[in-house]
Known about the structure:
Helix content: 40-55%
Structural class: alpha+beta
Number of helices: 4
Distance between the termini: 13 Å
Shape: globular
Number of domains: 1
Order of helices and strands: HHHEEH
Oligomer: single chain
Strand order of the largest sheet: 1-2
Number of strands: 2
Amino acid sequence: MSLETWWSAVRPETRDWIVAHNGEPLPLDVVEDITRVSGPVDPDAWWVAGRGPDGLELSDAAVDWVETVANGEAPPEP
């Protein structure tokens, strides 16, 4: 599932954490909330950079997307 789709379906505290820690690896509880609404994370999704030792990492494009949304602007197309 795409970031644009699951973003509005995750818990507000998940979105808040992602915005506050944009660019940092996602902790397990954040990933669990994403998978709760979207199913397993597709490692080839545009918003996934990979899974590092500290957790799931967002792609540069996803980090930019989150920043844009956090600033109240219309997000770019992936």
